[in-house]
Design goal:
The protein is an alpha/beta fold. The chain has a single domain (2-111, 143-183), classed as Purple Acid Phosphatase, chain A, domain 2 (4-Layer Sandwich), CATH 3.60.21. The chain contains 5 helices and 11 strands, in the order βααβαββββββββαβα. It has helices at residues 13-16, 33-47, 67-72, 161-168, 176-183; strands spanning 2-5, 53-56, 78-82, 93-94, 103-104, 108-110, 112-117, 120-125, 140-143, 156-158, 174-175. The strands form 3 sheets. The protein has a 5-stranded mixed sheet with strand order 6-3-2-1-11. Strands 7-8-9-10 form a 4-stranded mixed sheet, covered by helices on one side. A hairpin with an 8-residue loop joins β4 (93-94) and β5. The radius of gyration is 18 Å and the shape is globular. The protein starts with a strand and ends in an 18-residue tail after the last helix.
């Protein structure tokens, strides 16, 4: 099964909720950062199976020293990581000491990813795009960063946990079939001549 998620912000007190945030109000409403971390990780593991693949669209955790520990608790083996603005510390390999076997923390780390699965093409970025490759031909765009505050354009969608909570009432990932079903209800976004003339790429 293919899964998609983003913006967990593990260990990030300012996003956990107003009781622990230095901001006027936190994005979420947890009592503590630990409660947020445990809820997100446990809910993810309720859905993700070891043999599944997760595309993670950025902003994993706040502190570099906790990255390896958080990753070790996510049960799925394959995570393709798309870097967000809080991910400067993300590296592919986890391991310490010269001569030791370095185990990949993430299966790949990129800025954008484009895949085709079962005839459906998906373009992924941490940031929401106004246009994206082949958007006029039905290519789906998945993004994060905006915490369910950005209006979708055409066949695009925020797959962050805040949007999942808004739609499903759980801090959970989206699976491929759910994405396809949701996008089937949306019209193409055609801001210019693309899609209006035969032979356009």
């Amino acid at each position: 099964m293919l899964w998609f998620s983003s913006d967990w912000h593990l260990g990030h007190s300012n996003i956990a909720g107003p009781k622990v945030s230095k901001w006027p109000s936190g994005y979420r409403n947890f009592e503590t950062v630990k409660e947020m971390d445990e809820t997100i990780i446990n809910t993810m593991n309720k859905y993700l199976q070891y043999g599944d693949t997760l595309y993670f669209l950025g902003d994993f955790c706040l502190s570099p020293q906790h990255r390896k520990g958080y990753r070790s608790r996510i049960l799925v083996e394959t995570i393709h990581f798309i870097k967000g603005n809080h991910d400067k510390h993300i590296e592919r390999y986890a391991g310490e000491g010269e001569g030791k076997l370095y185990k990949p923390t993430f299966s790949s780390i990129q800025n954008v990813v484009k895949i085709t699965n079962e005839g459906t093409t998906i373009f992924m970025s941490h940031y929401g795009h106004r246009v994206w490759p082949h958007s006029h031909r039905g290519c789906i765009h998945l993004y994060g960063h905006s915490h369910s505050n950005l209006p979708d354009l055409g066949k695009s969608m925020d797959v962050g946990v805040d949007n999942a909570y808004k739609l499903f009432g759980e801090w959970r990932p989206f699976n491929f079939d759910e994405i396809v079903a949701l996008m089937s209800k949306k019209e193409l976004y055609l801001p210019d001549h693309h899609g209006h003339r035969d032979g356009d790429n």
